[in-house]
Specification:
Blueprint lengths: L24 H22 L4 H28 L5 H24 L6 H19 L4 H16 L1
This protein binds fe (ii) ion (2 copies).
The site of one fe (ii) ion has 6 residues, from α3 and α4.
Length: 153
Amino acid sequence: MFEFLTGDNDKIFMEWSDKYATGSKPIDDDHRGLFNIVNHYYNAVHHGEAQESLDAILDLVEKYIQEHFAREERLMSELGFKHLHEHKKMHADLAKAFFATRLSYHLSPGEFDSDAFLLFMQTWLTKHILTEDQKLVPYIDRERRTRREELSS
Ligand SMILES: [Fe+2]
Ligand SMILES: [Fe+2]
């Protein structure tokens, strides 16, 4: 999980709230980390930071997405999540959309639409976490209850 220290003048573009929580610490930490990276990108753009620094943030988003999707799919598989197949497809589509955006940035960084990218990340994160990742919550709850029963018996 990557942490960014926010400066006094930094604005919060995406605010974390409990409604995004799944109850799995590694998954929630990842999601929070993604919010942080998007906020970091937002502030870098609005403080007029150099291209290299934006590039480094996009590299980080790329790495983070890959690691997070793999971790989440692993947990889903362990918990017998019944929507795993569709969920993997959604992750693959999101990754593809991100890579296309990333490529357009590489090809012409000067014309990259940062606001459109921020909107894409915001829509994706909020929608996917609230409607799709949340479907994992009953599985996480069941696992926790089972473990508790095992420990007390
Ligand atoms: Fe997901
Ligand atoms: Fe997720």
